[in-house]
Design a protein that fits this description.
InterPro entries: 6-blade_b-propeller_TolB-like (IPR011042), AB_hydrolase_fold (IPR029058), Peptidase_S9_cat (IPR001375), Peptidase_S9A (IPR002470), WD40/YVTN_repeat-like_dom_sf (IPR015943). One of its GO terms (molecular function) is peptidase activity. This is Peptidase S9. Residues 431-640 form the Peptidase S9 prolyl oligopeptidase catalytic domain. By secondary structure, the chain is an alpha+beta fold. The protein has a domain at 10-28 and 375-638: 3-Layer(aba) Sandwich (Rossmann fold), CATH 3.40.50. It is 16% helix and 33% strand. It is built from eleven helices and 36 strands. It has an eight-stranded mixed beta sheet with strand order 29-30-32-31-33-34-35-36, sandwiched between helices.
């Protein structure tokens, strides 16, 4: 599967990526459907973020509880949800967010992961049945991740960079004693992709360039642990391990070798035979199986919205789901006995809610109501997929949110949103930040500029070593599309984005200073020279691919300087807001400090919001509220011009 070289970590994706759900396929010549204008109740940021974000759907061994992480307390904490009643029991209470891995297969111990203050040095922890907690991967500089249980649950696997900060080695952990045994010392910069349930086979991947990767099989029963290449190919293509079959006879991997989009193939370990397994008109995002293999769950990234399919492998048929509210399935999981399925439903106007379904029954049970009870769902906005032509005729897709109060007689200001990456994608789904701004009368157009994932490998690579140039032109032509809409105030269009989108925001103000009226840079790169020379050590395995995408700082430093907004900040003449996490390991605080100082020296209004307890994204609800309040006040002042300039 083609991998986006993302600068946005999981917390950033949860907190600042623009998402939604319902979609259509309108072309540039098809206007957004006119909706009867009506007044809507406006809600403050706190009300929007009183909405609960929830993730995870691991069943307890008996199937009577589901393990989730919820931010209802203000940070993500672990909870058990009773399948019958929906009641929740809190399991963790840290100052930093905790994210669920899963229950142990044979008892109610829980594995989870967390970092410290957003530093991205995630550790793997176990919560014992008595509530005590043990860090299984200690060390201030350690970064670790969970890699899977064996089928009988007696052992599990973790990866850790404890030996060498640049490489993730593989270890086996005894489920009773927590004794750690080295399995594979990674000296070649490979990544663990999947482990067979019998513990014998390890699927590894290697990023060769941003267009090309390989998959290897390591047989741990052999005396010499040498990864065997199984993805021989002549032209650049991506090969990525997905999962093993439950009988440990097949590896499922994704590849774009056969066309524009990623599809899934299976590799028979005994014979070395490759066979097609799953193909669609879009990228196949994932494939997985229930415990016995009875059910296959797969997802397709169809025009910025993931379509999940659950198939009965005994009949080959898609299972018939009960009638459900509008939305897209996410996070599907089965209980050990495969009688119960847990899943989420998410849409533009509804955050993810957890459901359980007794397979074959006529009704699913909703266990959560995550939208704030103070919000009328009818006041929220559904997105529309639109397309427009860029400067060279290339068709560019985007996700458009039109305020309900907008009309040709009540034109509204608008914002271009730019996603993270490079290589990310703005997708449909609920976003409290986005709905807050739309609710207050700002249209949002999330442009998937060239270089975005999800639209084929040719489109994905169109921005290689052209960052801040052709992709920036796509953003400007997205603005022109907004100006063609009779309900948009053509003179009041701003730009904002997170991570790579923050870079694009600053680049737009520095290199095209008359295009946008304001900009909001959220955790954005502004000095590529520094960023590419200070990447975290654990990025070593895909650093070559990153340099293939962005350019090697040893040879492309002049170009990096030319596209870095910091070195051209004297061109910035429009109001700028900068959001920064003090613990960000990707975009160092000094970058934002320097940009803010340079823009202030121009006499240009600049607002700087620094969060001492965040990294590259938001993990704490109170900070998301503070940031959203800051966005709205800034936009009301400088885009809507409701108030006088702030001192």
């Amino acid at each position: 599967m083609k991998k986006a070289l993302k600068f946005a970590c999981i917390t950033c994706a949860v907190s600042i990526a623009l998402t939604g759900c319902n979609q259509s396929n309108n072309s540039a010549s098809t206007p957004v459907a006119t909706e009867q204008t009506r007044q809507v109740k406006t809600y403050n940021a706190k009300t929007f973020f009183d909405t609960t974000s929830i993730m995870g759907s691991s069943f307890s061994p008996t199937g009577d509880k589901v393990l989730v992480s919820s931010d209802e307390s203000g940070i993500y904490s672990l909870y058990e949800v009773d399948v019958k009643t929906g009641s929740k029991t809190r399991l963790t209470n840290f100052e930093d967010s905790t994210y669920p891995i899963r229950y142990f297969p044979n008892d109610e111990r829980v594995l989870f992961t967390k970092d410290s203050g957003g530093n991205e040095r995630y550790h793997v922890y176990v919560r014992e049945v008595d509530g005590s907690i043990k860090d299984l991967t200690p060390g201030e500089e350690t970064r670790a991740s969970f890699a899977g249980f064996t089928k009988d649950g007696s052992q599990f696997f973790i990866t850790s960079n404890q030996r060498d900060a640049k490489f993730m080695d593989l270890y086996r952990v005894d489920s009773k004693t927590y004794k750690v045994t080295p399995v594979y010392q990674n000296t070649q910069g490979l990544d663990v992709g999947a482990i067979s349930l019998d513990g014998r086979y390890i699927a590894l991947s290697k990023n060769n360039t941003n267009k090309d990767s390989d998959t290897f099989i390591l047989d741990t029963y052999k005396k010499t642990l040498k990864p065997q290449l199984i993805s021989k190919h002549d032209t650049p293509a991506q090969y990525t391990p997905e999962t093993f079959s439950v009988d440990s006879k097949y590896l499922y991997y994704s590849t774009d070798a056969k066309g524009e989009f990623s599809e899934v193939w299976q590799y028979e370990l005994a014979t070395g035979k490759h066979s097609p397994a799953l193909k669609d008109d879009w990228d196949v995002s994932f494939i997985d199986f229930s415990k016995s293999g009875r059910y296959q769950v797969s997802g397709v990234n169809a025009d910025a919205s993931t379509k999940v399919t659950v198939k009965d492998t005994q009949t080959g048929d898609e299972i018939a789901m009960p009638k459900l509210p509008a939305g897209n399935l996410r996070g599907v999981n089965f209980s050990s006995d495969e009688k119960t399925m847990a899943f989420y439903l998410n849409s533009d106007t509804s955050p993810s809610n957890l459901f359980v379904w007794q397979v074959g029954s006529n009704e699913a049970k909703q266990l959560t109501n995550t939208l704030s009870e103070d919000i009328d769902q009818n006041d929220l906005v559904e997105s529309t997929i639109v397309r427009f032509k860029s400067f060279d005729g290339l068709e560019i897709p985007g996700v458009l949110y039109k305020p309900k109060q907008a009309s040709s007689t009540n034109k509204v200001p608008a914002l271009i949103w730019v996603h993270g990456g490079p290589g990310g994608q703005s997708r449909t789904g609920y976003s409290a930040m986005q709905q807050h701004l739309v609710n207050h009368g700002y249209a949002i157009f999330a442009v998937n500029n060239r270089g975005s994932s999800g639209y084929g490998k040719t489109f994905f690579h169109l921005d290689d070593k052209k960052h801040g140039t052709d992709d920036l032109q796509d953003i400007i032509y997205g603005k022109k599309h907004l100006q063609s809409l009779d309900w948009v105030d053509a003179d009041k269009i701003g730009i904002m984005g997170g991570s790579y989108g923050g870079f694009m925001t600053a680049a737009a103000l520095a290199f095209k200073p008359e295009e946008f009226k304001v900009g909001i840079n959220i955790f954005g790169v502004t000095n590529w020279v520094r960023t590419l020379n200070s990447i975290p050590p654990w990025w070593e395995s895909f650093k070559k691919a990153l340099y293939d995408e962005m350019g090697d700082p040893a040879t492309d430093g002049e170009r990096h300087r030319a596209i870095s907004p910091l070195f051209h900040a004297d061109n910035i003449t429009k109001p700028l807001m900068v959001i920064q996490g003090a613990n960000d390991p990707r975009v160092l605080q000094v970058e934002s400090d320097e940009l803010v100082a340079a823009v202030k020296a121009n006499g240009v209004p600049v607002e700087y919001v620094l969060f001492d307890d965040e990294g590259h994204g938001f993990s704490k609800k109170e900070n998301r509220i503070s940031a959203s309040n800051a966005y709205l006040n800034f936009l009301d002042t400088y885009l809507k011009e409701l108030f006088g300039p702030q001192g």
